[in-house]
């Protein structure tokens, strides 16, 4: 068995004295693990860091095996991230979400979204909004996508300012007014028309509250998984 | 076929094979050498291992391992009391001590934050670090953590954690290693070296 694919490193785990187990989000093979022999050598260490984009060749005798990776650097993003706490927390948060996906299940849309995210993670003016969008994409891929295009009560497509915590559908200002305290806020930058793309930090925090609510309710709590610390640290950083 | 080696020797080989850097073959060679040099090696090694097992302690102040608590480093009055170096592991502390480049006290975290390894902030020796940061006389904390995603994530977390305390937080420089040739360096290291260039 052998294939070649583009991938973004989302995790590296030591294995034995000199090797590492590499966790890649690949374009055509989804989240895929493999062993890199000699991965802890000084020559390979800089490449084998989470956030880097690599060209990977995976080989195994049979498909069920862990297999081995041979990787070549395409874009070394990690060095840019090391001095930026938001970038590191964002990367860890995105990786924690990607680990919710089953292994070897292709998600080309998520791969593209992750690519955009890692390209801009050290740009604190857009990275938070990109991570919120990434979380929305994750919810959709996990089968819990939010419907933010029209009001669940009236069908209106304008003045959408709430999301129903029960249905995950948008609610217009007029229809939601009587239930204001029970609805989640829909920040303008998440509306389907994307007419407003420069959110304030308060709007981004509202975006994280929205995605966080559904991630907890539909994904982390039913699976009994610990909530990722990195996400809370990321939100705390952008709130400051 | 029965093993040509007695169960005691087989057990010795199995235990040696669990040490870092030793596989079953090298463990056999090591065991054979120990047995051949019984008086010079095997007996003193067994005695040293027994005494270490009896006396080894983790320093309640810094997390270092020693046979005394507080450890020898914490008790050393010649060390600069204004400087504290935070390291991931005792191996890093030993590496800095071998280099002899800093005359400071240390704080061993016992790991770094890693989602993949399931290590969370509460698993690290951070409460004691916060307590030490509040001690009078300390002016600088050096975060000597690995230049990896996990190492630097932990460094940022500690920086945020210690922000209420009036101590200067510094970290190790990233850049060209001694003996490093620019042609062979990765772009990330070169970029870090250019960003952190100093006046010559």
From TrEMBL, chain A:
Keywords: DNA damage, DNA recombination, DNA repair. GO terms for biological process: DNA recombination; double-strand break repair. SUPFAM superfamilies: ArfGap/RecO-like zinc finger, Nucleic acid-binding proteins. GO terms for cellular component: bacterial nucleoid. Residues 1-70 form the DNA replication/recombination mediator RecO N-terminal domain. Pfam families: RecO_C, RecO_N. Belongs to the RecO family. Involved in DNA repair and RecF pathway recombination. HAMAP family: RecO (MF_00201). This is DNA repair protein RecO. It comes from Chelatococcus asaccharovorans. The lineage of its organism: Bacteria, Pseudomonadati, Pseudomonadota, Alphaproteobacteria, Hyphomicrobiales.
Automatic annotation (TrEMBL), chain B:
Keywords: DNA damage, DNA recombination, DNA repair, Metal-binding, Zinc, Zinc-finger. A zinc finger (C4-type) spans 59-74. CDD domains: TOPRIM_recR. Residues 82-177 form the Toprim domain. Coiled coil: none annotated. Gene3D superfamilies: 3.40.1360.10, 6.10.250.240, RecR Domain 1. One of its GO terms (molecular function) is DNA binding. InterPro entries: DNA_Rcmb_RecR, Rcmb_RecR, Rcmb_RecR_Znf, TOPRIM_dom, TOPRIM_RecR. One of its GO terms (biological process) is DNA recombination. The keyword Metal-binding applies. May play a role in DNA repair. It seems to be involved in an RecBC-independent recombinational process of DNA repair. It may act with RecF and RecO. Belongs to the RecR family. This is Recombination protein RecR.
């Amino acid at each position: 068995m052998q294939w070649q694919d583009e991938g973004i490193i989302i995790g590296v785990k030591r294995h034995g004295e000199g090797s590492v187990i590499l966790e890649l989000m690949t374009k055509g093979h989804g989240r895929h693990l493999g062993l890199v022999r000699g991965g802890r050598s000084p020559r390979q260490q800089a490449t084998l860091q989470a956030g880097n984009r690599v060209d990977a060749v995976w080989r195994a005798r049979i498909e069920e095996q862990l297999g081995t990776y041979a990787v070549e650097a395409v874009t070394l993003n990690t060095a840019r991230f090391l001095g930026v706490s938001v970038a590191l927390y964002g990367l860890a948060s995105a990786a924690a979400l990607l680990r919710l996906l089953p292994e070897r299940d292709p998600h080309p849309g998520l791969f593209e979204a992750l690519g955009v995210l890692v390209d801009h993670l050290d740009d604190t003016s857009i990275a938070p909004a990109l991570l919120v969008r990434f979380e929305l994409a994750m919810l959709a891929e996990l089968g819990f996508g939010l419907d933010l295009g029209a009001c669940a009560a009236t069908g209106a497509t304008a003045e959408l300012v709430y999301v129903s915590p029960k249905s995950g559908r948008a609610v217009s200002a007029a229809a939601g007014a009587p239930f204001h305290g029970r609805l989640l806020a829909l920040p303008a930058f998440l509306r389907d028309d994307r007419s407003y793309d420069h959110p304030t930090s308060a709007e981004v925090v509202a975006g994280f509250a929205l995605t966080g609510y559904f991630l907890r309710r539909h994904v982390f709590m039913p699976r009994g998984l610990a909530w990722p610390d990195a996400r809370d640290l990321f939100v705390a950083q952008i709130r400051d | 076929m029965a093993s040509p080696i007695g169960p005691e020797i087989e057990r010795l080989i199995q235990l040696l094979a669990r040490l870092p850097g030793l596989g079953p073959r090298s463990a056999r060679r090591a065991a054979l050498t120990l047995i051949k040099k019984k008086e010079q090696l095997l007996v003193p090694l067994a005695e040293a291992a027994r005494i270490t097992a009896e006396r080894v302690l983790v320093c309640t102040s810094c997390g270092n391992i020693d046979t005394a608590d507080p450890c020898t480093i914490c008790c050393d009055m010649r060390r600069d009391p204004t400087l504290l170096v935070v390291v991931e592991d005792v191996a890093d502390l030993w590496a800095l001590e071998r280099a002899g480049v800093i005359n400071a006290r240390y704080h061993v975290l016992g790991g770094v934050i890693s989602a993949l390894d399931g290590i969370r902030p509460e698993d690290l020796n951070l409460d004691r670090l916060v307590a030490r940061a509040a001690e009078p006389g300390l002016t600088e904390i050096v975060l000597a953590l690995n230049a990896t995603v996990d190492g630097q994530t932990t460094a940022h977390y500690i920086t945020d954690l210690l922000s209420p305390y009036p101590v200067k937080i510094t970290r190790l420089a990233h850049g060209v290693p001694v003996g490093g040739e620019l042609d062979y360096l990765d772009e990330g290291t070169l970029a870090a070296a250019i960003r952190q260039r100093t006046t010559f």
